[in-house]
Amino acid sequence: MKKINLLLLLLLPLMSFSQNQKFIDAMTRSLEEMSNAATAEAFLAVSNRFERIALAEKTEWLPYYYAAYARSVSAFIAGDKSKVDEVLDVAQKLVDVADSLSPDNSEIVLMKAMVLAGRISVDPMSRGMQYGMQSGMLMQRAITLDDSNPRSYYMMGQSLFYTPEQFGGGKEAGCNMLEIAREKYATFQPASSIHPTWGEEQLVELLKQCAATESNESGE
Question: Between these two residues, 124 and 194, which has the higher pLDDT value?
Fold first, then answer.
């Protein structure tokens, strides 16, 4: 009996490592699939894949987070906006679970802001006032929780860039924040190979618009 117990003790770390590696492999494959997604339907499909991982790994916040992220991206690029709220209702539930597993997590708080931004995209004129302030407060809280997280500055800069000056935004304010995001990305190191790294490519494209705007203004 003692030999059996000793054998079990020796095997437990190996079993734990095997299960952990299985989780990492599943996440890595899903992240690769998401990096190749180009349509709203493709992002919804990869969201479903992350949800299946979440069902198997109920104590891990990352699959819930990425499932919500993929749904949010799907909402932004969807041609038909009639079902966006339905898609984001599920995203909100997923990010709430992630929040319960990892409270006061900058990435998760920022994802809550992204879900709200997705709702605004349905009708910016009527929904900007409804969700804009709440989304901005969440972005600011994400920065407060972790001021090294570049995605918080990127999303804040993007929001300011597309918000008219009379409502507290403007291209100058947005571009200044995006420059901070660029500095943060330059030194950012993810906690692991499956932790969030998104945003830098989109940031580069926005900074090109900043440069073009500055060039046009200096030429006037």
Answer: 194
Instruction: Write the CB contacts of 209 (distance below 8 Å, at least 6 apart in sequence).
Output: 161
Confidence of residue 176 (pLDDT cuts 50, 70, 90): very high
CA 143 to chain centre: 14
Residue 216 CB partners (closer than 8 Å, separation 6+): none
Alpha-carbon gap, residue 163 to 156, rounded angstroms: 11
What is the spatial distance between Cα 167 and Cα 68, in angstroms, rounded to a whole number?
28
How far apart (Å, rounded) are the C-alpha atoms in residues 54 and 65?
9
110 touches 139 (CB < 8 A): yes
- Alpha-carbon gap, residue 39 to 87, rounded angstroms: 14
CA 98, distance to chain mean position in Å, is 12
Query: According to the model, what pLDDT value does residue 9 have?
Result: 44
d(CA 186, CA 180): 10
Q: Which of 8-22, 88-102, 120-134, 154-168 shows the lowest per-residue confidence on average (mean pLDDT)?
A: 8-22
With beta carbons less than 8 A apart as the criterion, state whether 210 and 171 touch. yes
pTM for the whole structure: 0.89
Handedness of CA 177, 152, 144, 93 (dihedral sign): positive
> What is the C-alpha separation between 57 and 27, in angstroms, rounded?
11
d(CA 78, CA 4): 57
